[in-house]
Every structure is written in C-alpha cells, then in structure tokens.
Write a structure and sequence with these properties.
about 260 residues; alpha/beta; 14 strands; globular; 3'-tRNA processing endoribonuclease activity
Length: about 260
C-alpha cells in the first residue's frame, strides 16, 4: 500500500499545495485499487497528475468543511460530462450523514437527487468498517465542531491512520495504535492557538501517537499557509522519539 499526498494545506489551498487530499493505492487481484481520502479545494486538479479521477474506486470524506470536500463538485462535472463517459455508472462515496444533500447545495442544484445519478452515497458510522477491494477502512469519530472521522486504512498487513481534523480525544488511541504511518492534523501552534476541540498541534499530534503505542512513522499534515512547518515539526519533535516527517504535495510514500 502507498499513499500520495495530493494536498496537505490546512483550511484553504496554499501557494504550494491544494487543501486536504490523499490518494491511497494497493495491488489486489491483478490490478491497482485506489481510494481518495478527502477532496478539498484545489485537489481535483492536482489529483489528475497521479490518476484519472473518475477511475478512483471510491472517495471517503472525513467531514464536510470545504477544505476537505468541495472539489467533489468538480468531480461531479467530470463524472457527468467527460466526453465518452467515465466508463462506470456511479462512484461510491462515503461521508458524514447528509453528504449528498450538502454537495448538491454546494454545487447549486439544491436537491441531493441531482447528484445521485453520479455518486452512490453511504453514511459513515463510528467503527463500522468499509471494504473496498484490498482496503478495510475503519472510520473513527473524532473531536471537531462538525461530524468528523479519522480513517484507519488496512491493506496487505499494513496500517495507514489519517486523523482528519481533530483535537485531542480518547478515540485517537484506537485510530492510531500500531499504525505504520500516521497522517496527523497539525493546524494549530502551541502558545498561540488556544481554541479547544478543533485541531491538533504538532505537540498534541505527537502525544497522541506516543500514547496510542506502536506507531512507526509520524507525518504532520493540514498545516495552513500562515504557519511555519518547521515550528510545527519542532513542537512535535519535543515529544516524538523518532523523525517527525512533514507531508509534501505530490510525494508518494510506501506505508
């Protein structure tokens, strides 16, 4: 299993990166399967450098803030109007309750039925696993102002844990435990950002990974353009015993 960092900017697309989007791929039954975790603003364009977006096997949306889902509107246009058709009837999409209606309003159609002919929507539920080809994905409800999930993605004996947007919570223990790679929200800076229950800082991300136990690699992501990534990394490095990695757009990592 490998993961490509399509977009890792927090809150909005930055000058170097789109907002949140991660392409995860694994070989299974003679072909490459692919899923996308989040599709934030600017991500659809960058995704095309790595895969035809309408060929993705499924999309999973951690929550419905625009920096994690709004480029689904562009994917809708691509799926509906690409010349010759996308070669498939619909695309499976898992998201929080009401995802279809939310995206229909964002696109401007007003009715969820207008997008149902393109996307096959399924509601995420805490700890209710989703199987897509070789991937077994466990959504874990996390600590954010809206319904939000982290994803524990397992394939080929490897584990990728993606926190989505969250502050510290007990659920991070089960999400991160034993993960080969953790993609951790690091939008806040300790000593400056004090609003609770929204985002992790580098330090709090590292504390969560240490507390969960067995995590092999920690990679900080969702860093807004106004933050210094090295400051986020330094705060994490004060806690994390190994190398603190930073997500970089277009980089692919073997999990």
């Amino acid at each position: 299993m490998d993961v490509t960092i399509v977009g890792c900017s927090g809150s909005f697309a930055g000058p170097r990166s789109p907002a949140s989007c991660y392409l995860v791929r694994a070989e299974h039954e003679g072909r490459t399967w692919s899923i996308v975790l989040d599709l934030g603003n600017g991500a659809l364009g960058a995704l095309q450098r790595h895969i035809e977006p309408y060929a993705v096997d499924a999309v999973l949306l951690s929550h419905l803030h625009v920096d994690h889902c709004i480029d689904m509107c562009g994917l809708y246009v691509m799926m509906r109007y690409v010349p010759g058709g996308p070669g498939r009837p619909t695309m499976p999409v898992w998201g929080p309750s009401g995802t279809g209606a939310h995206l229909a309003r964002a696109y401007g159609s007003g009715e969820a039925e207008d997008v149902l002919g393109v996307f096959d929507f399924h509601d995420l539920r805490h700890r209710a696993t989703v199987t897509i080809g070789p991937f077994v994905i466990t959504p874990v409800r996390v600590n954010h102002p809206v319904e939000a999930y982290g994803f524990r993605v397992e394939a080929g004996g490897r584990v990728l844990a993606y926190t989505g947007d969250t502050d510290t919570c007990d659920q991070l223990d089960e999400l991160l435990a034993g993960a080969d790679l953790v993609l951790a929200d690091s939008a806040f800076v300790d000593g400056r950002d004090s609003v609770p229950d929204i985002h992790l800082s580098g330090r709090r991300a590292a504390e969560a990974a240490v507390r969960a136990g067995g995590v092999r690699r920690l990679m900080l992501t969702h860093i807004p353009a106004w933050n210094d990534p090295d400051e986020c990394r330094a705060q994490a490095a004060a806690v994390w015993p190994g190398e603190v990695e930073l997500a970089e757009p277009d980089a692919t990592h073997c999990v």
